[in-house]
Design goal:
By secondary structure, the protein is of the alpha/beta class. It is 50% helix and 12% strand.
Length: 468
């Protein structure tokens, strides 16, 4: 918005022309309307007006009707009313209905110009806030979730479906796989996107503080509780709360979480009244909750409550085809941060990055790239400039795999290798012959003959049905 576009609605020709000249002299784009009907017609066909200045009393369609039409067509447009002294009460009501302000007749041009300027400043500020809010939502929409491997495409497919629901979600995966990024993507693409997104790492809280942090406490509930405290659940009202490392919660906390999931209610520590909270729970963990239930560490009923929709993030070593994409993504981000010139990874360094097992997953590869970029002296980053663990383990890992390949070639015949490949594929795809044939590049008839020839009995029941 340069200086703003104004529509002047006034049925008295002299007043309308006078106002239009005053606004034009201040650098505004100005149009006029001789009646409320014409103003509504103009607004329907041209929603580019930032401000409408309208007389309150006009024949047929008055200023109040113009106000309602403007706010209906474009809620962000501001409206200033011109009123006589006797209709001030009506103008006050119009402000309650969304008008910015009013001026009373007679007035000086400087007076209405001052009101118009403030109205346009308010609109400009509000538009800027909305723009920034949109930027924030776009930033977190799928920020940092990089990959086109089958495993990640499946994760993104499930995530996009979950966004449109209110279901509780359990995100599992090793440390550093990006569980919080998925949680943020769900929140910022859901109907709750305008509400808060609250994150709590349950594993970082001592057991005796978990309930107080999550549900709040009342003054005097325990030693040191000198005033009432609002918990994170209440802070997440109308939004989403991410319970990271939920497997680390104490049994007493689990009981309260279960109650919230059942009834939507919490009770602050030391309180005797329940509080209704409208918040969506997303839980995340890097441990096996089924095992935790089996050993009595985690409540079975709570597990079933949070395990409504599960999203599992595979470790990086199981989706190595995504490594080049991640390297490119983080390289661009880090170069912006450290303000260095162009950097590229050599073939040897990229080979090392591909061969490394990445126990720290996405977080570790990001740190490794930042380290290499920061310490690099030339445009091309060599393998020697990678963190030592990446460089050395990659060399060892590659040598070990090559050695295994040589031994395998020596001790197994082609027939044995073919049989092993079929068995491995059948087990991987649950005995689905159609899928296995596609993967191996042969017909289902050929596959069936080879299964009979080698007497193969896979772990799963063999099926000739396609994937559902």
């Amino acid at each position: 918005m340069e200086n703003g576009k104004i529509l002047v609605v006034e049925d008295q020709d002299a007043m309308r022309e006078s106002l239009m000249i005053a606004f034009k002299d201040e650098g505004y784009q100005v149009e006029g309307a001789v009646s409320g009907e014409e103003a509504m017609h103009k607004f329907d066909n041209q929603n580019g007006y930032d401000l409408v200045v309208t007389d309150l009393k006009m024949k047929k369609v008055d200023g109040l009707e113009v106000l309602r039409a403007v706010k209906s067509a474009n809620p962000s447009a501001e409206v200033v009313l011109i009123t006589a002294y006797g209709t001030i009460s009506t103008a006050v009501q119009a402000i309650r209905d969304g008008a910015y302000d009013y001026v009373t007749k007679p007035f000086r041009h400087q007076e209405i110009l001052k009101v118009a300027k403030k109205a346009l400043e308010k609109k400009s500020l509000r538009d800027r806030v909305r723009y920034l809010e949109g930027e924030i939502r776009d930033k977190y929409r799928f920020e940092g979730i990089v990959g086109n491997s089958n495993a990640m495409l499946e994760v993104l497919k499930i995530t996009s479906h979950v966004c449109r629901t209110e279901s509780t979600v359990l995100i599992t995966g090793e440390s550093g796989t990006g569980k919080e990024l998925i949680a943020r993507a769900i929140h910022y693409n859901s109907l709750r996107k305008d509400g808060p997104f609250v994150v709590i790492n349950c594993g970082a809280l001592p057991e005796n503080l978990q309930e107080s942090e999550l549900f709040g406490h009342m003054r005097g509930a325990f030693t040191g509780a000198i005033k009432d405290k609002i918990g994170l659940f209440q802070q997440a009202q109308k939004g989403t709360i991410l319970l990271d490392e939920i497997g680390e919660t104490a049994q007493s906390t689990q009981v309260k979480l279960l109650r919230f999931l059942q009834d939507g209610e919490i009770r602050p520590v030391g309180g005797n009244k329940t509080i209704c909270v409208d918040a969506r729970i997303i839980a995340a963990t890097n441990e096996n909750l089924e095992k935790a239930v089996e050993f009595g560490k985690f409540r079975k009923d709570l597990f079933y409550r949070i395990n409504v929709i599960r999203i599992h993030l595979p470790p990086l070593r199981e989706r190595r085809e995504d490594i080049p994409l991640l390297v490119e993504y983080f390289l661009e981000k880090i170069l912006e941060k450290v303000r260095k010139g162009k950097r590229v990874f050599s073939k040897e360094s990229m080979k090392a990055l591909m061969n490394y097992h990445w126990p720290g997953n996405i977080r570790e590869i990001q740190n490794a790239i930042e380290s290499a970029v920061t310490l690099s002296k030339n445009e091309t980053i060599s393998a020697e400039e990678l963190p030592l663990s990446v460089e050395k383990f990659s060399e060892f890992n590659e040598d070990m795999r090559e050695d295994q390949k040589r031994k395998s070639f020596i001790v197994t015949s082609l027939a044995e290798q073919e049989k092993n490949a079929i068995v491995e594929a059948l087990n991987k795809y649950g005995g689905n012959q159609t899928k296995v044939a596609q993967v191996l590049g042969i017909s289902t008839t050929t596959l069936w003959r080879k299964i009979k020839k080698y007497g193969i009995r896979p772990q799963h029941e063999i099926s000739d049905k396609g994937e559902k």
